[in-house]
Amino acid sequence: MVSRFEHPAGGYKKIFETVEELNEPLPATVTGCIPSFIKGSLLRLGPGLFEVGSEPFYHLFDGQALMHKFDFSNGQVTYFRKFVKTDAYVRAMTEKVLTSSPAFSHFVTFGRFFTYFKGVEVTDNCLVNVYPIGEDFYAVTETNFITKVNVETLKKVDMCDYVNINGVTAHPHIEKDGTVYNIGNCMGKGAALAYNIIRIPPKQKDKSDPIEKSKVVVQFPSAERFKPSYVHSFGMTENYFVFVETPVKIHLLKFLSAWSIRGSNYMDCFESDEEKGTWIHIARKHPGEYIDYKFRTAAMGLFHHINCYEDSGFIVVDLCAWKGFEFVYNYLWLANLRANWEEVKRNAMIAPQPEVRRYVLPLDPYREEQGKNLVSLPYTTTTATMRADGTIWLEPEVLFSGPRQAFEFPQINYKMNNRKNYTYAYALGLNHFIPDRICKLNVRTKETWVWQEPDSYPSEPLFVQNPDGVDEDDGVIMTIVVSPGAQRPTFCLILNAKDLSEIARAEVDIMSPVTFHGMYKP
Ligand SMILES: CCCCCCCCCCCCCCCC(=O)OC/C=C(C)/C=C/C=C(C)/C=C/C1=C(C)CCCC1(C)C
Ligand SMILES: [Fe+2]
């Protein structure tokens, strides 16, 4: 599952360049045969504006949110994109005029692009993901601001108006009835630091906005009094929430002062705890109740959970880990990503290394004597051992490991197998942080499949189930690929999820930048 390609021509630099939005959809050229069940839209978010006037943004996550849409109807495909008209975007466009003024000497990535809320400035630049709440769709980042969209920007919503939270992740779990669960930092407001799980109910019979009925269902305590960890996603089984508290910490003082110091960047708010390792917490879902088991493991970075499920008194937690305590975002400066290939490789040599891992958490950890492995699931080498101090030490099973070859931005057949003992995971392959292939992993046998083409840069692979299918991998993978040297450089690629063979592609004669996350809207 490692990359077959080197990228000496540096074509990947183009996916970190500014593009313009469109005024109307572009028709795409289709090759192959689009499956008849693909009738809907592929929606994706990412950065689209990487500078303001002559002043550049510096970090991958600073670019202004651009929403992409491929529409599928009767085998015909169109492509459309629009910047989300957030306050951050409007201010960037205003600054664009200002930067031509000689009085404007120093551009501040962070301070200038954050909007005020209750005395603290927080960004609404929703470049990370899009997901449904009730009958609406929201473009999101990781702060308290989410933006209602239908490609056009509809309205900005502040989650602080409804729940005690300082941000929510871009990775909620959504149940079959539309109930949304999410997690976010809760920085005090009279209480200790914590992480709150919130629940947004599904579409309401009385047509009211479900967001108004959002509730905190359970709270995880913070390992450190003044330094919460950065949280990007969480796990959810039938009956439990799983929260991995990594050593990447938000330094609160720096966080609060960052807004008032010119030249400060949100990357300055993070620091790594080199000693604490990783704490894994669980909580019961119905009713919400924190369970004070002290699961501990070695330091790791974590952005994306793959899947979590219960099996015979255990919780199985599969995730895309990054070894060690260093923050991977420190390697995602645009200067690093736009560097020449040899330098890109050199940077990735010293960065944390990726690994797909399985952890198993015993739900009854006190039944065995100290020092014995508590995990008795027959299909995994994972261990959990009670120690004298009452902590339970976890050792993972490695499901996939390739130095500097990440299996990241993972997806599963969420509809059929989320929260279940599943077999297949799909992901974007990162070659020294450059996205250059689509991967599939059988988490039981560790068998792998790859789709890859020279000088082509795909994005997160979304799984869409064949409605007539029975197997977990009866369906297609949809991804947006950018091939900068091609005549039609952007295309939506549809792969057979069984073996990652190509079914169809819909190409447009326009360049596109990188996208992070998105969804298929039937
Ligand atoms: C698609 C390919 C990209 C190419 C390179 C990728 C390399 C990736 C390597 C690891 C995986 C990383 C996954 C990251 C995925 C993602 O989508 O990240 C986007 C995250 C963003 C934009 C985060 C923004 C966070 C903000 C604004 C946080 C604000 C906050 C604080 C700084 C402290 C207090 C809380 C609050 C307000 C949330
Ligand atoms: Fe993410």
Automatic annotation (TrEMBL):
Membrane topology: Lipid-anchor
Cell compartment(s), UniProt: Cell membrane
Xref: InterPro entries: Carotenoid_Oase
Organism superkingdom: Eukaryota
Keywords: Cell membrane, Hydrolase, Iron, Isomerase, Lipoprotein, Membrane, Metal-binding, Palmitate, Sensory transduction, Vision
Cofactor(s) needed: Fe(2+)
Major localisation: membrane
GO cellular component: plasma membrane
Signal sequence, start to end: none
Residues involved in Fe cation binding: H171, H232, H304, H517
Keyword Hydrolase: yes
Catalysed conversion reaction: an all-trans-retinyl ester + H2O = 11-cis-retinol + a fatty acid + H(+); lutein = (3R,3'S)-zeaxanthin; all-trans-retinyl hexadecanoate + H2O = 11-cis-retinol + hexadecanoate + H(+)
One MF annotation (Gene Ontology) recorded for this entry: all-trans-retinyl-ester hydrolase, 11-cis retinol forming activity
Gene Ontology biological-process entries: retinal metabolic process; visual perception; zeaxanthin biosynthetic process
Cofactor note: Binds 1 Fe(2+) ion per subunit.
EC number: 3.1.1.64, 5.3.3.22
Family to which this protein belongs: Belongs to the carotenoid oxygenase family.
Protein's UniProt name: Retinoid isomerohydrolase
Species the sequence originates in: Sinocyclocheilus anshuiensis
Gene name of the encoded protein: rpe65a
